[in-house]
Specification:
5 helices; globular; mainly alpha
Length: 170
């Protein structure tokens, strides 16, 4: 796959997967209408903005890594040619899922719409199950010992304090 094709496929996947899960569904649930919470809530709104901004930046970083380093997309129908282990992937194996959760929780805090928190909880369960029963076996089959070494060194959900010094990205 060429990088141009990987970029186009990744853009489509970005709009269809995280765009729907972290954008369209929260909009359906809240119409992005903010509630006017008590004054003590204001600092939580700031935290919400930070989570949304950080989540978007992490998502974009991860998608670029898939195109440039992996020469493919995050979509299972057009996977990468190489295992993506650079950038934020040196700290945590699943930054995209964490970024989506940050965007959803950030919206809950920014808008004062706590009904988004059970949605985020459901997403967490779905993400963990998908990773455990589909992604990890697929990566193990596709990349073998390289993935196993990476999996043993880098945590799935709680980032390392220091980057993993494994094989440099190609």
């Amino acid at each position: 796959m060429s990088r141009a094709r990987a970029a186009a496929g990744s853009l489509v996947f970005l709009l269809l997967a995280p765009g729907v899960v972290a954008g369209l569904v929260p909009w359906w649930l809240t119409r992005w209408e903010a509630r006017t919470p008590q004054p003590w809530w204001e600092p939580l709104r700031v935290v919400g903005v930070v989570l949304i901004a950080a989540g978007i930046l992490v998502l974009l970083h991860a998608f670029v890594r898939f195109v440039m380093e992996g020469v493919g997309t995050p979509s299972p129908v057009a996977p990468t040619e190489r295992l993506v282990v650079g950038g934020l992937y040196r700290y945590v194996r699943n930054p995209m899922y964490l970024a989506v959760l940050a965007v959803v929780v950030g919206q809950a805090l920014l808008l004062g719409r706590l009904e988004l928190l059970p949605y985020a909880g459901g997403l967490t369960v779905a993400f963990v199950a998908f990773v455990r029963w589909y992604e990890e076996p697929a990566l193990r089959q596709r990349f073998g010992a390289e993935y196993e070494s990476y999996r043993r060194a880098v945590p799935a959900w709680w980032p390392r304090r220091r980057q993993w010094g494994g094989p440099p990205p190609c």
